[in-house]
Design goal:
InterPro entries: Methyltransf_25, SAM-dependent_MTases_sf
CATH topology of one domain: Rossmann fold
Shape: globular
GO molecular function, one term: methyltransferase activity
CATH superfamily of one domain: Vaccinia Virus protein VP39
Order of helices and strands: HHHEHEHEEHEHHEHHEE
CATH class of one domain: Alpha Beta
Helix content: 25-40%
Number of helices: 10
Structural class: alpha/beta
Number of strands: 8
GO biological process, one term: methylation
Organism: Streptosporangium roseum (strain ATCC 12428 / DSM 43021 / JCM 3005 / KCTC 9067 / NCIMB 10171 / NRRL 2505 / NI 9100)
CATH architecture of one domain: 3-Layer(aba) Sandwich
Largest sheet: 8 strands, mixed
Keywords: Methyltransferase, Transferase
Bound molecules: S-adenosylmethionine
């Protein structure tokens, strides 16, 4: 039930809020879709530093934040001392009493290769009729960024990195939800080009924050040149006059436990 986050999910919790607070800022419409009611019991799965956990709590719900990274949970507890946070793995967490809803922003694609295990854990955590409301990366998410990354690695004589994310198509994820015991009430699949305002060094900064684990096996003297090349390759698609733009594609859904 508890686990140490594997390397792809090792986060820099300290810089997460200051540099990448846009992740939770984009969660506002998802909180509206969740529509938390006073007194409801809700899990925030992959809660990170707890910004949206606190937002949902402010609507009167009782929220448990769960995250695989102990660094994230430590920061969440420090920022929001009155709220409940625990370290847990989305693929096999259990709860003592079923919840009214499970909410998840920008986290399910990190729980990657075992989506059915996540869906099954979420189902077990819900009362019948309970809601599963989430947003994650969808098929094609960050395609230009990841293509630049793979090419740069290859050009530097490195084995192409094994990317840690799971970005399903809407049809695939809806099928998994239905097979996993949910009725899909809403499913949206859309482009959301996202300004990387906090990334003066463009795609290279994004790689350091979100794909930093891929740099772990790279010889130190190659890193700068590798990231410079990622920027050169990604720039035609992602650099605008106003700054860098990530090519995010989102899958947002609301499903109900049968
Ligand atoms: C991009 S952050 C999003 C955090 C937060 N939901 C927000 O909107 O700011 C993704 C989070 O998923 C967590 N995560 C990744 N894999 C996980 C797993 N298997 N189980 C639980 N949490 C996981 C990471 O530790 C990270 O905090």
């Amino acid at each position: 039930m508890r686990y140490d986050a594997p390397s792809p999910t090792r986060w820099n919790a300290r810089s997460y809020d200051s540099s990448f607070g846009y992740v939770s800022a984009h969660g506002a419409p998802l909180v509206e879709l969740l529509d938390p009611q006073p007194g409801e019991r809700i899990v925030d799965l992959g809660c990170g530093t707890g910004v949206l956990t606190a937002e949902i709590t402010s609507r009167g719900a009782r929220v448990l934040g769960i995250d695989g990274s102990s660094a994230m949970i430590e920061k969440a507890l420090a920022q929001y001392p009155g709220l409940d946070f625990i370290v847990g793995d989305g693929r096999d967490f259990t709860v003592a009493q079923p919840y009214d809803a499970v909410f998840s922003n920008a986290a399910l694609h990190w729980m990657g290769r075992e989506p059915d295990a996540v869906i099954s854990s979420v189902r077990e955590a819900l009362t019948p009729g309970g809601r599963f409301v989430a947003e994650m990366g969808g098929a094609g998410n960050c395609a230009a960024l990841t293509a630049a990354l793979s090419t740069a690695w290859r050009e530097h004589g490195l084995r192409e990195p094994d990317l840690p994310w799971y970005f399903p198509t809407p049809a695939e994820y809806a099928t998994r939800l239905e097979k996993g015991g949910f009725v899909v009430r809403l499913l949206e699949y859309f482009d959301r080009p996202t300004p990387l305002d906090e990334c003066p060094n463009g795609a290279a900064d994004w790689v350091r924050m979100f794909a930093g684990s891929l740099l772990q096996g790279v010889p130190a003297d190659l890193v700068e040149s590798l990231l410079r090349r990622v920027n050169e390759l990604a720039a035609p698609a992602l650099r605008r006059e106003t700054g860098w733009m990530a090519d995010y594609v989102r899958l947002r859904f609301a499903a109900v436990r049968r």
